[in-house]
Amino acid sequence: MLSGGRDRMGLPSHVVPNGSASQDSGHARLHELGYKQELKRDLSLLSNFAFSFSIISVLTGVTTLYNTGLKYGGPVSVVYGWLIAGSFTIFVGLSMAEICSSYPTSGGLYYWSAKLAGPRWAPFASWLTGWFNIVGQWAVTTSVDFSLAQLINVIILLSSGGRNGDGASGDKYVVIGIHGGILFLHALINSLPISYLSLFGQLAAAWNIVGVFVLMILIPCVATERASAKFVFTHFNTDNGEGVNNKVYIFVLGLLMSQYTITGYDASAHMTEETKNADTNGPKGIISSIVISIIVGWGYILGITFAATNIPYLLDETNDAGGYAIAEIFYLAFKSRYGSGVGGIICLGVVGVAIFFCGMSSVTSNSRMAYAFSRDGAMPFSSFWHKVNKHEVPVNAVWLSAFVSFCMALTSLGSLVAFNAMVSIATIGLYIAYALPIFLRVTLARKSFVAGPFNLGRYGLLVGWISVLWVATISVLFSLPVAYPVTIETLNYTPVAVGGLLLITVLAWILRARHWFNGPITNTNE
Fold first, then answer.
1. Backbone angles phi, psi at 10, to 5 degrees
2. Where are the alpha helices (DSSP H) in 262-410?
3. How distant, in Å, are the alpha carbons of 53, 157, 285 from that of 295?
4. Residues 66, 302: contact at Cβ < 8 Å?
5. What is the pLDDT of residues 110-147, one digit of tens each?
6. In sequence order, what DSSP letters do the residues of 454-509 get, joined into one string?
7. The dihedral of CA 231, 63, 481, 93: what is its sign?
């Protein structure tokens, strides 16, 4: 099933694709796996890390869902929930990194599932994982760029006087228009050669790190009122206004902010065909992006929470920021000290740029997944999406990803409930795609798996099982009702959305795909 018994580093130069004499292990391993080198392999470990780190983007996830953390548990939920979710995510990342080292291809998760499931189950495992992965990625791009559009709307509101100063803000049609414009810019940037994208990715990583440290120090220092250490580390908010009173239940719901944020690190796997020495640098990109995100993210959470002294007011939709908690914290900190909230608006601009970079990197990852999935014939019109331009960029897949993400956001015009259900796939759907190859690694392939240069040794099975159990746990917990009594408006539609995706994927397999989709297709003989 695997070709791990061959010497990956000693493959003769004459079999390296395109006649290259390069001894880069990524070239050699890709050829062993049956693929030609079609994308330009120009990324360093730093660049590979930068793409995943920019998609995780703590400034994006924490800022976007800080309201959820404050509402469900408050400081205790956001401070300790981050460490809990982060710790288990490291296990997931380690398991993915080990598999990535053995199979460094742009297909990533779905290719891994095919190889780990064995000949009998390979096509179905690949099909299921691939569709959960790509739809989950599109949902991530949708939610990230939509959150940027909402933040821009809040910045406009605050810049024009705030909610209490008759400030102006756009309606849902303005927001969707801004969202479309952002996606258009992301598609344009991602149509550039990979060398330019590499620079953007490194800039994005630097922006996120510097931005976090600036904001975590600046905001509590500027604020005239600061919370005590006792409040930040021990206060538990039970006043959520949603009829949820059990403290454990409340804490679980507050975990969503943390787990939603620490997502998207599979980008390092999808970029491996463009990364030098991918069988070592791809895994390192996954692990380093998670660990560094956990560290800087916790610092950001602490800094912001020290400035969050009045939770009910921050969540109140009648405040100047319309109930956008972090925007109100930034605005109020500067306004209370200097009489003007301009400084806070500039700080929101720093966050906005980070979110823009996050969406940009997300489209990059989406397009590589779509490129690989279509290379194996799994998508409608696969031959079109698989094409690369003269710069060796899968430009058709780039624009497909932007278009699909825009279409997913259109549901917000009809109902925010429907939109939230769709983007819930960004967390649960994507983590299911993460867990499937890990599950196959610890079950069907537990004896046959041949590890690459990066491996967990005898701890691989233990780490894998912890990862699978964590994903199963959060899949159940994040599907629970978030408000009582449960009505059409308050129902958590996450299980409906994820279950619907599962049903459609399985039905498509039974009715049609099983007759023609055989899993990953090698192309070295073309």
1. -105, 20
2. 267-270, 278-305, 311-315, 325-338, 342-375, 382-385, 395-409
3. 12, 32, 16
4. no
5. 889 999 999 899 999 999 999 999 999 899 999 999 99
6. S--GGGHHHHHHHHHHHHHHHHHHTTS-SSSS--TTT---HHHHHHHHHHHHHHHH
7. negative
